[in-house]
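A brief tutorial aside. Many learners find it easier to grasp structure tokens once they have seen a single protein encoded end to end. The record that follows does exactly this for Expansin. Read the sequence first, then the structure, and try to relate runs of similar tokens to stretches of the chain.
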Amino acid sequence: MLVFRSSSGSEMEKVLVVLFLSLCFASRLGCSAAQQWTSATATFYGGSDASGTMGGSCGYGNMYSAGYGTNTTALSSALYGDGASCGACYLVTCDAAATRWCKNGTSVTVTATNYCPPNYNEASDAGGWCNPPRRHFDMSQPAWETIAVYSAGIVPVKYTRTPCKRSGGIRFGISGHDYYELVLVTNVAGSGAVAAAWVKGSGTEWLSMSRNWGENWQSNAYLTGQALSFKVQADDGGVVTAYDVAPANWQFGSTYQSDVNFSY
């Protein structure tokens, strides 16, 4: 319980500031006062229209239909985590204190959709930008040009995790065959990155799924002919449950959108 006693104006201001900061740190991805900024570097790929960024190791395919647009990025190994960071959102700003190539006062929010592999034929500071243990963003060209001048090629940046803002519910794309359901989880708000997933047929209990690759989650149960519900846990610990997302006559190769998502 907070008890406020009579105090001078300056003392009351200090109390309010402490309370504000406490509330910030209590939130998962919170307000800007609680954000932790980390140094990294950034390059770009995919062309001026970002057409070369479609696909990617997270499995999202067409970034437009998946809801991610052109503000996307590939991550180096230090950030990618074997796919654990797929779907996460990062607020990135060019480090104007370290380079003259920044567009001052700008920042961009990008979604992790791809992996930037190491290039051990190049030194880490001369072309091997994604070599461990470097923290590196290989961003879509449109996103990168929001914060830096094209001719720079590579710039130092500061970044922080930030909540993902999505429209509509979480989507579940089902591929595979009987006894092998591969579920692509997309359009995840909040943390954006999925840490665990479960599926429940109308005739089963909740069944744990395993990450196959990227944001594709695998079940080896026989679920054909059953309505499907899904439970998703984000990497910040939050959990949402989407009941009866896919009807009993669901089909492989189809995507089903729920009416639930994480808050942001």
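Self-check: Residues 1-33 have pLDDT under 50 and may be disordered. If you spotted this yourself, you are ready for the next section.
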